[in-house]
């Protein structure tokens, strides 16, 4: 087989983060008795996305992202809140459930018999481990690497250098990273000289100006089995 180690992103690749995020947000706003309207949700999404982009570029610390996203959102609606307190409660709700991407459990179970499998995530370690265990995926992965513990985040080269240094398999041509984000997973792999697999379940089209080109593109996780059997 061409690849011996598979590096999986988690949110949006194996776990349907968007589906459970909505539930966690609804519970959070309900607890604090703040109406959770579509307008507030859209504002939160915009602010949250912008903060994460700055984090991925190395412009913001992770704590700055997490502890300000709710306060910055609600400040626009004349609600002054404790952003850290809201974030801690949100983490509790988010860690309390999960939704698997279709085919995730079956694909990981089969590939784990022939490949070393690791998680590479920009998410919060404690939350990610809990969700992996709840989903039944935890047993298939030998290691979990997260940006919070490493101190650098995807697509930063130093994130991947740390991962490779800590794994037994450091031959780059034996590694494959699988993820749903072109800007973090695929770009990070390209910058490191690792083959990439873009998980694109909604079949997003790429503009001609987009220079991020993945080695493989799949719409279903089950397609990985053919790629990894080569």
UniProtKB/TrEMBL annotation:
InterPro entries recorded for this chain?
HAD-like_sf, HAD-SF_hydro_IA, HAD-SF_hydro_IA_YjjG/PynA, HAD_2, HAD_sf, PGP-like_dom2, Pyrimidine_5'-ntase_YjjG
Q: Which GO terms describe its molecular function?
A: 5'-nucleotidase activity
Listed Pfam families: HAD_2
In which domain of life is the source organism classified? Bacteria
This one is known as Haloacid dehalogenase
